[in-house]
Amino acid sequence: MSSFDSTFRPVALVTGGASTLGAEISRRLVQKNYRLILHYGGSLKKTQQLEAELKSAGADIVVLQANLQNQVETKRIVKKIIKTFGRLDLIVNNASLFKPTPYSHRFILKGWTEIFNINLFSPFVLCQEAYPWLRKVGGSVVNIGDIYGEHPFLKNHSAYCLSKGGGNYSD
What we know:
This protein has helices spanning about 20-30, 45-55, 70-85, 110-135, 145-150, 160-165; strands at about 10-15, 35-40, 60-65, 90-95, 140-145. The chain is of the alpha/beta class.
């Protein structure tokens, strides 16, 4: 780690930060001297293992649990980051829910709602809540997509494909 004043070190949030891809992103950000907010939904053990690994390397990490299906909890993430670090420079929207939603005459909206809340709506809410802080420091957002967002041919995963494709369009 560098010895310069930590108040000027950038702060990054990685949602789903201990998943396979999220863990590698988190490791790289720590190598680049970011202070890290490691978000998890339900994978506490995996998150604690990654936290221990990164802290042993000297990383400045805050672990934060939040249910991204809940917009109030999603907004709370940004408030906690600002209270803790006073800034936010990068959001990596990596958290994702992947589960089948086969179509049938007994269509169940609950499964679709869960997937859309985590994969599409929570990144939007996070960005909306963090916008003033990101703008202040010239920050960035990285939304992790999936090939199935552009080519939605994954059988029995319509909600997943649509939720990943929803982030591909802008005004």
